[in-house]
């Protein structure tokens, strides 16, 4: 600790000899961090931007941290630097442990979640269905998600969650005890020096919105991701992560309450590698699923996933899976993400996937429809399609942002039209205003085309909404 104080004293003393005087346009003198910022600049540890701003709210990158540490090392000299580094590591580890303990203590027993309220006006400029002109509304919707998490120890926790899903006027009639509540428990420990984590949950599993109203046709198929009745265990062996789980599907809640309709065993192993020159930080995930109802009703599929960050703020994923040996039982998918790469407040997500017509077998019996995931609108993806979607968000200020989404769904042979199953197009534009960090107001306009319903079938939706996180 004495070495740390000595180095900091030397650095501060050296700063007094720097004659350059810098003033940032976005850093008033009465700001709480003003003195520290200008001291760092005088020391040569940090700089502003060419336009005369400091941008104190901008996230710091690992490159920038490395640059600051390197400059500190140059000023401090190499004598005692190794010992100083070890002291810093020990103190940071202790601080990190204390912060984690305090965070768990603060979160334990607290209630948090979100409340979403929307007003829909449908079919304003478009709205034809198989029965003629569609309804215009207005319609209202709310969704409440709230949970109570309790830490039983540093390594064990329980969380109870209530999610109203589509019961908030979107057409769902949900049983509060078996559909709206779920319970999740987590336990960490070690077995013969091997770390393990066990997760157990009781819930309805993912649910799909299928509203009887034609006001919001473009929202049909939206997935409410909920936990299953399941138990899983994972462990690490060196750089290898192993995970296995059991999931109970189609659990009866009426005739024979608690009876399991189908069973799923899932196993995956994950490892990382830096052997590829372009795909840095490559993570490989290999595994599969075994669905079982009885001796004559079973189904197996295999899957391999790749995840990489070739450069900072750029992400790539790819997936190949098969439920059989023919091409129609196979699936491929990929995503590209860019998170403020140009420091311009622009975030981009592009998703593409192709699912063979027999990739999933008897989804009702095995309850396996969710494996295909969702599009950029959060809607389920059927088999036998090609899907391409994009989600672009542009921040205009700290409070204001615009968002544009688009999704094109083609039949399995890359065709679109009335006689092409599952083909559709959806586009949406959003304006988002953050009143506070917890409250966001949204105005959005969506237009949805489904030529398989009618030659000119279309629907649009204007939404005025808010979301509050607590």
Oligomer: single chain
Beta-strand portion reads: 35-45%
The CATH class label of the largest domain is Mainly Beta
**Residues in helix, %:** 10-25%
Number of strands: 21
Helix-strand string: HHHHEEEEHEEEEEEEEEEEEHEEEEE
Topology summary:
Blueprint: H1 2-15, H2 34-42, H3 62-76, H4 81-107, E1 110-129, E2 132-133, E3 139-153, E4 156-163, H5 176-180, E5 181-191, E6 194-202, E7 207-208, E8 223-224, E9 229-237, E10 240-249, E11 262-273, E12 282-294, E13 297-308, E14 314-322, E15 330-339, E16 346-355, H6 363-366, E17 385-395, E18 400-411, E19 424-434, E20 439-449, E21 458-469
Folded structure, characterized:
The chain is α+β, with helices and mostly antiparallel strands. It has two domains: 2-96, no CATH class; 114-141 and 210-221 and 232-469, Porin. 16% of the residues lie in helices and 45% in strands. It contains six helices and 21 strands. It has helices spanning 2-15, 34-42, 62-76, 81-107, 176-180, 363-366; strands spanning 110-129, 132-133, 139-153, 156-163, 181-191, 194-202, 207-208, 223-224, 229-237, 240-249, 262-273, 282-294, 297-308, 314-322, 330-339, 346-355, 385-395, 400-411, 424-434, 439-449, 458-469. The strands form two sheets. It has an 18-stranded antiparallel beta barrel. Strands 7-8 form a two-stranded antiparallel sheet. Strand 20 and strand 21 form a beta hairpin. The longest helix is centred in the N-terminal third of the chain and has 27 residues, at 81-107.
């Amino acid at each position: 600790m004495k070495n740390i104080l000595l180095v900091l004293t030397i650095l501060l003393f050296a700063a007094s000899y720097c004659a350059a005087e810098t003033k940032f346009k976005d850093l008033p003198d009465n700001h709480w961090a003003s003195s520290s910022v200008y001291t760092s600049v005088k020391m040569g540890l940090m700089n502003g931007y060419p336009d005369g701003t400091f941008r104190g709210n901008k996230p710091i990158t690992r490159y920038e941290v490395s640059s600051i540490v390197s400059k500190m090392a140059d000023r401090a000299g190499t004598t005692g630097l190794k010992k100083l580094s070890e002291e810093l590591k020990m103190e940071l580890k202790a601080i990190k442990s204390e912060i984690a303990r305090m965070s768990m203590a603060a979160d334990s027993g607290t209630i948090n979640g979100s409340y979403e309220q929307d007003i829909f006006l449908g079919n304003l400029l478009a709205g034809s269905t198989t029965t003629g002109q569609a309804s215009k509304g207005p319609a209202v919707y709310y969704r409440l998600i709230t949970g109570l998490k309790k830490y039983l120890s540093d390594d064990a926790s329980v969380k109870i969650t209530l999610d109203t899903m589509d019961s908030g006027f979107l057409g769902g009639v949900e049983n509060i005890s078996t559909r709206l509540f779920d319970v999740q428990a987590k336990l960490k420990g070690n077995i013969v020096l091997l770390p393990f984590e066990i997760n157990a949950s009781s819930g309805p599993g993912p649910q799909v919105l299928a509203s009887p109203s034609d006001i919001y046709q473009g929202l049909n198929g939206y997935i409410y991701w909920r936990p299953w009745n399941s138990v899983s265990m994972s462990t690490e062996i060196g750089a290898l992560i192993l995970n296995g789980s059991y999931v109970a599907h189609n659990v009866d809640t009426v005739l024979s309450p608690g009876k399991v309709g189908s069973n799923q065993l899932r196993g995956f192993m994950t490892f990382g590698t830096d052997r590829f020159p372009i795909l840095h930080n490559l993570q490989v995930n290999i595994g599969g699923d075994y669905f079982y109802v009885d001796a004559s009703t079973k189904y197996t599929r295999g899957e391999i996933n790749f995840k990489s960050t070739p450069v900072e703020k750029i992400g790539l994923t790819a997936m190949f899976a098969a439920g059989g040996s023919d091409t129609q039982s196979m699936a491929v998918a990929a995503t590209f993400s860019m998170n403020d790469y140009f420091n311009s407040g622009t975030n981009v997500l592009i998703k593409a996937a192709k699912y063979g017509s027999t990739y999933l077998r008897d989804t009702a019996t095995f309850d396996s429809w969710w494996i295909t995931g969702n599009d950029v609108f959060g809607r389920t993806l059927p088999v036998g399609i090609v899907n391409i979607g994009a989600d672009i968000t542009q921040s205009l200020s700290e409070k204001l942002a615009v968002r544009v989404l688009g999704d094109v769904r083609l039949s399995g042979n890359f065709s679109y039209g009335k006689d092409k199953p599952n083909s559709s197009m959806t586009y949406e534009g959003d304006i988002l205003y953050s009143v506070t960090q917890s409250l966001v107001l949204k105005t959005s306009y969506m237009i949805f085309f489904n030529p398989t319903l009618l030659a000119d079938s279309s629907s649009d939706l204007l939404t005025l909404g808010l979301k509050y996180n607590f």
